[in-house]
Each structure stands twice: as structure tokens, then as C-alpha cells.
Design a protein that fits this description.
The chain is an alpha/beta fold. It has two domains: about 120 residues, Nucleotidyltransferase, domain 5 (2-Layer Sandwich), CATH 3.30.420; about 160 residues, Nucleotidyltransferase, domain 5 (2-Layer Sandwich), CATH 3.30.420. Helix content is about 40%, strand content about 20%. The strands form three sheets. Strands 3-2-1-4-7 form a five-stranded mixed beta sheet. A hairpin with a 2-residue loop joins strand 9 and strand 10. It is globular, with a radius of gyration of 20 Å.
């Protein structure tokens, strides 16, 4: 029987993992809290999961935060929340030998690969995935291929900056942070849990006038971002991912604000083709699928 693949999605809060087959069918999956104490504790947790699936996989693939230097197999900057991963190589740390290949991909690029492979970018020549979370991640597809750039940093949308205010508080990563938006609304609602997205979206969906301006400003920021990226890539479709994208009002309002932007600038509306804007197909498991697709592409290209 052909063995499957073990995929990991490393996040600051949880390690999600799952067993998938070559066609992208998720056979089983689970998650554990991410150990953030040090490298040894973190790697022990990874190895425990690998041992659980011993004999059932032919390769291991990871989605992780941070820039992935594919030339040297290193994670750069460790994604902030896991600084001990900076300049570390998971294939080297695991040292499983040539029989079990190990690949690593950036989390936002993994989300884009999932959509390109089996999701809402399948068959789209030029487009992008925008993932909404703590910051704003991106995966840009040009000529049916994920764009990496010279330093594997294409799509780092969080760092788009307002040069009149050169600080992180005036970047897309802050203005377009769904976490910041939810916290701001939770403050207004007086919620004890400032991460209570469920209650926040109940208020948004109920058109609570206390919170709608904050939510609308957030969606306007993403709409402007889509417009700016569109001027560069001339895409056919933008796919909105991240946990809050399951809320239909998110994509609906981003579309509404994008149309308002174009109406306010007639020359823009007359000149630039408007791309489709839609919800991502994959949500919580997106990075598992994308990590696997990255591995399959590397295998097909003879990289491992």
C-alpha cells in the first residue's frame, strides 16, 4: 500500500498536523499547543507526533511562519513568536535520512499553494491569496506559478508602509490586522475576552452602530490593498483567507469598499480591470494542503 504524507502547520498558538494522501485527501488531523519555551521542547513535540505516525508516511512537510530560504533550507526570523527557529533547518534538525524527505514552506505561501492546487485559484493564471490574521499574509500567483522573488519574500504584504509615518503602527500589517480589529471592537463592547471573535462578529452581523465603523475601516484597508496589488500583477482573482474569512460579511464588505473606491476614482474604474474577490476554499487546514503541494512540486522537480 502506498504511504501517505505527514503535514505540519506550525503556528504561534497551535501545531496542527494531519495525514494526507497524494491527491490531497485529509485522512486524519489534530492539533497540540505550540511549545514556545525553547528549541529542545519544541522539537520533542514534533518528534512525538512523528513517532505516532511511524510507518504510515513517505514524507514530512511543514508550513511555518517566517521567510523560508529554499536555497539553504533555513527559516529566517522564526516568525516572531518562535525566535528559537531563526536560521534553523527542520530537515537537519530531524535528520531522518534520505528515505524520508522533509520540506518546509512559508505559511502564507502554503495557503496560496492550497488554493492554487485544489481551491479557488485553481486554473487562475494571475491572482493572489490574502490571508487575514495577526498580520496580512500574501501569496501571489503569476503565470500559474507562486511568486517567490529573489529573496523568497514576495507577498510580505504586512510590510507595505505609509512613508509619511515610517513605523510599524502605520503598516498594512497593523491596519489590516484582524486581531487588532477584533480587539478594538471587543474593547467597545466591554468583552472580558479581547479575542472573542465570535461575539464581535455577532455584533458586526447585527449592524451594531458602535462597531461598524471599525469593521468598515478594516475592510476598506484590505480593499485598497487589493487595488494596489492589482496595479502590479493585473490579476483575475483575489482570494481572502484566514480565520475570519468564514464570515460572509468579510468578503461582502471588502467587495463593497472596493467598488466604492473605484466609484470615487472614475479614472481608476475606467482604466484598471476589476478582479474577482472571493472567499478562500480552505480555512483551518489550508496550510496542511499547501505544505503537501509544495512537497509534491519539489519531488516532481527532482529537488529531493
Amino acid at each position: 500500500m502506498q504511504k501517505d504524507y505527514l503535514a505540519f502547520d506550525i503556528g504561534g498558538t497551535d501545531i496542527k498536523y494531519g495525514l494526507l494522501d497524494h491527491s490531497g485527501n485529509l485522512i486524519e488531523h489534530d492539533k497540540v499547543a505550540t511549545p514556545d519555551q525553547n528549541l529542545d521542547v519544541f522539537m520533542a513535540a514534533i518528534k512525538t507526533i512523528i513517532e505516532r505516525f511511524d510507518g504510515r508516511f513517505r514524507g514530512i512537510c511543514f508550513s511555518v511562519p517566517g521567510t523560508i530560504d529554499h536555497d539553504h533550507g533555513e527559516i529566517i526570523y522564526g516568525g516572531g513568536s518562535l525566535p528559537f527557529m531563526d536560521h534553523k533547518s527542520l530537515p537537519e534538525l530531524l535528520n531522518l535520512g534520505e528515505a524520508i524527505p522533509v520540506t518546509v514552506e512559508n505559511d502564507a505561501k502554503a495557503a496560496a499553494l492550497a488554493e492554487l492546487w485544489l481551491g479557488n485559484l485553481k486554473g487562475i493564471k494571475n491572482g493572489a491569496v490574502i490571508t487575514l490574521g495577526t498580520g496580512v499574509g500574501g501569496g501571489i500567483v503569476v503565470n500559474n506559478q507562486l511568486l517567490y522573488g529573489s529573496h523568497f519574500q514576495a507577498g510580505e504584504l504586512s510590510f507595505i508602509t505609509d512613508w509619511q509615518h515610517p513605523d510599524m503602527d502605520h503598516t498594512i500589517g497593523k491596519a489590516g490586522s484582524s486581531v487588532v480589529m477584533i480587539q478594538s471592537i471587543a474593547e467597545i463592547l466591554g468583552l472580558p475576552d479581547k479575542k472573542d471573535g465570535r461575539t464581535v462578529f455577532e455584533a458586526i452581523n447585527a449592524s451594531d452602530e458602535r462597531v461598524l465603523p471599525i469593521f468598515t475601516d478594516f475592510c476598506r484597508t484590505i480593499a485598497a490593498l487589493i487595488n494596489n496589488v492589482q496595479t502590479v500583477i493585473d490579476g483575475d482573482r483575489f482570494v481572502i483567507g484566514g480565520g475570519i474569512s468564514v464570515q460572509k460579511i468579510v468578503v461582502e464588505t471588502i467587495k463593497k469598499e472596493y467598488l466604492a473606491l473605484r466609484k470615487a476614482m472614475p479614472v481608476l474604474d475606467a482604466t484598471l480591470k476589476m478582479p474577482e474577490i472571493m472567499e478562500a476554499k480552505f480555512h483551518n487546514q489550508a496550510n496542511l494542503y499547501g505544505a503537501l503541494y509544495h512537497m509534491l512540486l519539489v519531488v516532481d522537480q527532482g529537488g529531493i
